[in-house]
Amino acid sequence: MFEYRTLEGVDTEILHKAFVEAFSDYQVKLDLPLWKLQRMLKRRGYVPEKSLGALKDEELVGFILNGCRKWKGRYTAYDIGTGVLPDYRKQGLTTNMFRKASELLRAEGVEQYLLEVIQENTAAYELYKKQGFKVERTFTCYKLDNNKCKIEGNIEVSHADGLETAEWEQVKAFWDAEPSWQNSIEAVRPLPGGFLYSTVRSGNKIVGYGIMEKRTGDIPQFGVDRDHRGQGIGRRIIADLISNSETGKAAVLNVDDRSKSIKDFLSSTGFEPYVLQYEMIFDMNA
Q1: Secondary structure of the chain: what % helix, strand, coil (to 5)?
Q2: How far apart are CA 98 and CA 227, in angstroms?
Q3: Domains recognised in the chain with CATH numbers
Q4: Strands 249-256 and 59-71
Q5: 93-127, pLDDT tens digit by residue?
Q6: Own/partner long-range contacts of 259-268 (Cβ < 8 Å, ≥24 apart)
Q7: Separation of alpha carbons 281 and 258, rounded Å
Q8: Disulfide: which of 3, 247, 272, 276 matches 119 by Cβ 3.0-4.6 Å?
Q9: In 3D, which of 134, 95, 94 has the Cα closest to residue 115?
Q10: Which residues pair with 68 in a beta bridge?
């Protein structure tokens, strides 16, 4: 009845049409024009030959879009998005796609499968549990309308289109928690010029930084050197990023719930939580 194939050779326009329709009744309102899907796929490492589609009479009616790369030292697949068109649900497509995708990924040497799911999406959460996924971390996502920003300051901020390799190693020491897949260094590097990098320096040394995708207002990373905290550097960087957002809004996704200091900081600058997520992992060698 249904045919299952990898998505190699499938145009992004076809993926976009299916994605928008599959997520038309999602818990969070989807704002995903074609250009945004294209950037999302690039950031998250989309590999069509390791992704799977379900087809009915040559129409794409279900999909699992996967990215692949090293994650914490292991070759990992990341579920960018799994969806089924409304008219084809409750027919076992998602279960079949996961089974076939897992077989495909295991044959390609993938060691673990990573995804995120909204906590309120209990049907998806229970499905992933049945497939062998276990909760690794819990995340909170934050958003801010720029006119609600509560930040002032005159600390000098400089801008760049990226960081040098040595600088990346330097700012990693600022992290209070490991970024999620979509916020990782590997997720922002493939889009040179797509992000604004705001930095505060002491001499030639970076003591604070933040990164924002200008067209969406997404802030995947920010941090301040521990020896320079409490001086308003983080607040000034966030203010600078927000002032350069082209959307009039800003968002910080997937903040590790164990990072109370980050959550308190975001709340103090006017950000509000709006989505709770689970990060889940399936060990394919277990």
Answers
A1: 30, 35, 35
A2: 46
A3: 3-110 (3.40.630.30), 142-277 (3.40.630.30)
A4: unpaired
A5: 999 999 999 999 999 999 999 999 999 999 999 99
A6: 259/176, 259/177, 261/176, 262/176, 262/177, 263/140, 265/234, 266/142, 268/150
A7: 18
A8: 276
A9: 134
A10: 77
- pLDDT tens digit string along 2-58? 999 999 999 999 999 999 999 988 767 778 999 999 999 999 999 999 999 999 999
Residue 149 has what pLDDT? Answer: 63
- Sequence-distant (6+) residues with CB within 8 A of 218 are 212, 250, 251, 253
Backbone angles phi, psi at 19, to 5 degrees: -60, -50
Residue 129 sits at φ, ψ, to 5 deg, of -60, -45
Distance CA 233, CA 85 (A): 46
Matching residue, tokens 């590790």: 256
> Distance between CA 231 and CA 24 in Å, rounded?
44
